[in-house]
Design a protein that fits this description.
Elements lengths: L5 E7 L4 E8 L5 E9 L7 H4 L4 H20 L4 E6 L9 H12 L3 E3 L2 H15 L7 E6 L4 E7 L2 E8 L3 H7 L8 H17 L9 E5 L1 H11 L6 H4 L3 E3 H12 L3 H5 L6 H4 L2 H13 L5 E4 L4 H12 L2
Parallel strand pairs: 1-4, 4-5, 6-9, 9-11
Antiparallel strand pairs: 1-2, 2-3, 6-7, 7-8, 10-11
Helix pairs in contact: 2-3, 4-13, 5-12, 6-12, 7-12, 9-12
Pfam family, one: Ppx-GppA
InterPro entries: ATPase_NBD, GppA/Ppx_hydrolase, Ppx_GppA_N
Protein name: Exopolyphosphatase
């Protein structure tokens, strides 16, 4: 990797769109130039309609235009835009592609769940020092959850499951707060998905969580009133703390959740669904705790771009 190149990685998920601008330092690690996040809820109603809502598309394109200005200011040599769960099966993808191309001047790539899992694993491992392997990386997004079991740069098994915070909220957790029956239905669905998945979660000696659900749980657990990446990164949640947070979030209204920590409204609306998923995964591990990582798929993308000289 060369330190004179600057790349921009954009991850467009079901709930958020995020930007990382970085170069490579002398030791090969990323040197972050800029990082941004907008909660655009691109996956609004997708699980029901199979199409992007016009309002969701416009929110996403507005964020893309903001990112484009940052990319220009940092004189980026290359830009990669990946779209994940929400964009895989929608009927109006062409409208999405055209809008991204107009705003950013690059084509959106809809990557498979397997590539998403691999990039998340690489990104998480780049920012966490692990003493006990194998490592299970959990990436709980709005539309899907990736589980990756591996050691250093070697992946043993991985899966991308169609369960995420937005998808679970829209499909099962309709009330505010959800009813006991809705929570039971959601847990049953998640448990069935996890039982059928090929990743043996119980064999992991270290469990690492990435993305907005996990980082938000850490911020709430620490009582943060303003989000602090340094305090969240490498923080640890016990399995009991995860279970307690999930129960509290599922019993609370969105207004109440929003007051629990430095949460934006669109995160607060779906956090209970993501917490339920993380809780169910943690129940199947034996490590007893969850290490929280601020490095994730964006970091994996940037590292790959610099390594390949894209």
């Amino acid at each position: 990797m060369t330190g004179d190149r600057t790349v921009a990685a954009i991850d467009c998920g079901t709930n958020s769109i995020r930007l990382l601008i970085a170069s490579a330092g002398p030791d090969g690690h990323l040197v972050e130039q800029a990082r941004d996040l907008e909660l655009v809820r691109l996956g609004q109603g997708v699980d029901t309609t199979g199409a992007f809502h016009p309002d969701a598309l416009e929110r996403t394109f507005t964020a893309c235009r903001t990112f484009a200005r940052a990319i220009t200011e940092h004189h980026c040599d290359d830009v990669r835009f990946v779209a994940t769960s929400a964009a895989r099966d929608v009927s109006n993808r062409d409208e999405f592609f055209a809008g991204v191309r107009k705003a950013l001047g690059v084509d959106a790539e809809v990557i498979a769940g397997s590539e998403e899992a691999g990039l998340s694993f690489a990104g998480a491992m780049s920012g966490i020092e692990v003493s006990e392997e194998p490592v299970l990386v959990i990436d709980c997004g709005g539309g899907s959850t990736e589980l990756v079991l591996g050691r250093e740069t070697k992946i043993d098994s991985q899966v991308s499951l169609n369960i995420g915070s937005v998808r679970l909220r829209e499909r099962f957790l309709h009330d505010d707060p959800p009813t006991a029956e809705q929570i039971d239905e959601a847990r049953t669905y998640v448990r069935e998905m996890l039982t059928e998945c090929p990743v043996d979660m119980a064999t992991a000696h270290t469990v690492v969580g990435v993305a907005g659900t996990v980082t938000s749980l850490s911020a709430i657990n620490q009582g943060l009133t303003e989000y602090d990446r340094a305090k969240v990164h490498r923080s640890v949640l016990t399995a009991d703390q995860v279970a307690g947070l999930a129960d509290t979030l599922l019993a609370s209204t969105v207004d109440e959740v929003e007051q629990m920590g430095p949460l934006r409204r669109r995160r607060a609306e779906v956090l209970c669904g993501g917490a339920l998923i993380i809780d169910e995964v943690c129940h199947r591990t034996t490590a007893g705790e969850l290490v929280v990582s601020e490095t994730d798929i964006l970091d994996g993308m940037a590292l790959a771009m610099l390594a390949q000289g894209r």
